[in-house]
Amino acid sequence: MDIAALNSTKSLRKDVLRGMCLCFGFLSVGFAGFNLTVNNFPLLGYIEICFSIYCIFTYISLIRRPLQFWQSLIMCVLITLIVILGTSLASPRNGVFVWSFALPILYYLLLGKQYGVIFSANLLVIQVFILGSKSTLAPFETFNLSLNLLCAYLSIWAISHVFEGSRSHFSKRLKNLALLDPLTGAGNRLSMNHYFEVELQDKSQLYLFLLDLDFFKQINDEHGHGVGDQVLIEVATLLRVVLGRGYVFRVGGEEFALFSSFANEEAALNTAEQIRARFENTTFDIDGLAINVTTSIGVAKFKSTNSLESFVNQADKQLYKAKQFGRNKVYCKFKKEHDYETVVA
Questions:
Q1: Would the pLDDT of 8 be above 80?
Q2: Ranges for the GGDEF domain (predicted)?
């Protein structure tokens, strides 16, 4: 699965913003010429020219770089200011206010629910105030027309709000289905890839613990897979508690990977030993059965040359040693002036 597909919301907003930039970039040039030559609104015309230049600049930027939230925010602010300024300068008969009906849709698509509510509410209040202060109320002289326009705006706002809420909810559910192990609730391999490649920015003090439950097959053979599954759930919970800060991923049947940052190697090893000792001293109560399980741990420190695959292989070699030389041990190999092994048993 493509990792980028997990950021569906960001991809959607980038596509929407690019389309808006292309559309409004050309429209603004036409409106600017009309306002400078026919309507005699030079201020609005020059602002629209500047807006058109900004739209083209943003469009080109989005081709080369990822979307930043501030780009969507600035776009919505600029469009809102242009519509408000146009409404205040022009007569209501010119219909500039009609653009207000499209803005809630753009707010929700580009900014989400929270900002969508704020922008839509402020736009409504400001536009009602501007139109209400005009010397002539035409074409709002009839109450029915004013009421219908208000209801139309509120309906578009409500539909945009409900749609974005539903889209956001289902996007999160799909992301959870893709990223979480359905049994334990820990991250899966795809989640680990996504975390390492996309979310994790600073890897300078990153450590990887690769854990394998010792003789776990015996639990399944003696008590059944149902009990084994409950043990795995308890194990994932225990790992999250003991690790404190960091991320837990289930990468195999009884194998887990833990990512966390530590100030130094000693702190990382102390945490790994705490995890090992906690398992050794914990008895899981599963349907009235007292289940004891130990774990072997391989520890690796991130190097600037590491890919995720090489990082995992580095930890896997230490895990293999922990299992080969007796299990219920922590093995690691850090490189300073010389290579050396640290074994915690």
A1: no
A2: 204-335
